[in-house]
Design goal:
This protein has one helix spanning about 25-30; strands spanning about 5, 35-40, 50-55, 60, 65-70, 80, 85-90, 95, 105, 110-115, 120-125, 130-135, 140, 145-150, 160, 165-170, 180, 190-195, 200-205, 210, 220-225, 230-235, 240-245, 255-260, 265, 275. With about 280 residues, it is mostly beta strands. It has one domain. It has a 13-stranded mixed beta sheet, with no helix packed on it. Strand 24 (about 255-260) and strand 25 form a beta hairpin. The longest helix has 6 residues, at about 25-30.
Length: about 280
Amino acid sequence: MSGTTTVSGGIVPQNFSDASGSTSAFSNYFTATTILSAVSVSGATSVTGSAVITNSSLAVTISGASVIDDAAQNGGSSITTTSPAAVFASQNDTISAASGSTTLFGASSQQTTFAVGGTGNSIVGGSGSIWGVASGDNSTLVGGSAVSLFTVTGSNNLVVAGSSGTTGVDLSSTTGPEQVTTNPLGNSGTLVATLGSGADTVIAGGGASTITAGSGQDVFGFVDGHAGGTVVILGFNASDNIAFGGYGYSATNVPTETVTSGGDVMTLSDGTTILFAGLDHKLF
């Protein structure tokens, strides 16, 4: 570790932007009075307060940090945090956090790999790809604009697909309840999700989604305005439910349905198309 520096308005790190190109999340954590420990060698195990990593390919454990920024252009570091922190990753970083309440912002290029435990974590993908495991409860994971692959265990987690790119979600080991949704701010993202054994809720409709139902009593919700895409549901069964919001459907006003060789195709009034794969009859 080499010294500390006081961040002023002119030298706030500017290496981060989110999937939409915004730097607002970054500036929220760095102010004119932020104190940074500048980490330039591996093995720094007792950094107190905020830290900025200035060299690539380091292996560091950082304790007591409120914010950590990997400002090295080539990234490639292995960063372990032992207390709740906001972490801004660089390309090809691997982030490990076991304490919970970790906020991770994925890199703007290449890949970010993570493993987080505990409860209340937040994972936000950038414009690079992101892959990892969230093993605790009450976490929120938001896909980026490239490829996002999330393996989630525990209960009461929320996964939101990226507004673009592809988000893959493996909830097969969960007992739920879990929530999965396509991105309400954009309709071009692709979502592929496998549900677990709990009573999970899926809000779909935007972009292209493929959802494999779990063994629990799952709810597939569709909201007028959060829609216009295509949804494929695999394994829909009698214990599952469909919910509509804002469409005005009733017992005498139901969506259009057509049974095809691939299953029951339902078309909503806003153009959303839902295929209940393998279903040989209409639901309404």
